[in-house]
Specification:
The mean pLDDT is 95. The chain is 40% helix and 17% strand. With 290 residues, the protein is of the alpha/beta class. Strand 9 and strand 10 form a beta hairpin. The protein is globular. The protein has ten helices and eleven strands.
Length: 290
């Protein structure tokens, strides 16, 4: 039976540390501030934004909530970003994705000042990450790495199999795990991978970030493996009030009987993502103040 990884508790420890740093900066007359921009009314995005804003308030930070109609033009959004870039009271900018289809996400992300890119999506942030230079790391991949380190999971020389190659999770996570200070051997699997189980059965650490409910089964892992489930999927469930339930990319019930460690969904990686966002906002505020 696997040890269930409590991302809530570890995330809360990080949030408490951030809260103390925010209080110290407030003494200097500076309140860390994140501008959260949401265009449209996507229910999942609205839920994510609400959770982030609540976390900011609990950490003693300011959240500048900017809600835009779905019909907002790309030019209008770019103009808003330019204003936020030059606003010294705003230390971080978060553009909630996905944006309405008529807006070019790459153009919007690139328009942000890299010094305020607390999501770590700007090309400058990505370049710094790849080169191992100081800068903002994307929240979910960084959260996974911190989770593994907090649990003292051996990483140097470990074989980590990352399933998924998104720009938000898969690619940056593979890069972070392969960096010298982590030193894991990384295999990246995706929709073009033949015989996925052949790779996962060789892994010391399996990280599922494919967006495919129940993709990883017990027969696909070796005993004692560390399983990190990044997937958050809504599947129909008429027994629930909302008509759906959340599940990950891992068949939790079967895999937990065989793995050494496993993250639940929800309550695993999700709280770490929020914690790392707060840490990035804090870092941005401290650097800009200095």
């Amino acid at each position: 039976m696997a040890i269930i990884i409590d991302g809530k508790t570890i995330g809360l420890q990080i949030r408490e540390e951030v809260q103390q740093r925010a209080a110290a900066l407030k003494v200097q007359g500076v309140t860390p501030c994140l501008a959260v921009v949401l265009a449209g009314e996507d229910p999942a995005s609205l839920s994510y934004v609400t959770a982030k804003e609540k976390a900011l308030a609990e950490a003693g930070m300011e959240s500048r909530d900017i809600r835009l109609p779905a019909a907002t033009t790309e030019a209008e959004l770019l103009s808003l970003i330019a204003a936020l870039n030059s606003d010294t009271a705003v230390h971080g900018i978060l553009i909630q994705l996905p944006l309405p289809k008529h807006i070019n996400e790459d153009r919007v992300i690139t328009a942000m000042d890299p010094a305020k890119d607390v999501d770590g999506f700007h090309p400058v942030s990505v370049g710094n990450m790849v080169l191992g230079r100081p800068g903002f790391l994307p929240c979910t991949p960084h959260g996974v790495l911190v989770l593994l380190r907090k649990l003292r999971i051996p990483l140097s020389g470990a074989h980590a199999v990352v399933i998924g190659r998104s720009n938000i999770v898969g690619k940056p996570l593979a890069n972070l795990l392969a960096r010298r200070d982590v030193n894991a051997t990384v295999t990246v699997c995706h929709t073009g991978t033949k015989d996925l189980a052949r790779h996962t059965l060789q892994a010391d650490i399996v990280i599922a970030a494919a967006g495919s409910p129940g993709l990883i089964k017990a027969e696909m892992i070796q005993p004692g493996v560390v399983v990190i489930d990044v997937g958050v999927n809504r599947v129909p469930d008429l027994t629930k009030a909302k008509g759906y339930r959340l599940c990950g990319d891992v068949d939790f019930e079967s895999v937990k009987e065989k793995a050494g460690f496993i993250t639940p969904v929800p309550g695993g990686v999700g709280p770490m993502t929020i914690a790392m966002l707060l840490q990035n906002v804090m870092q941005a505020a401290e650097v800009q103040y200095e």
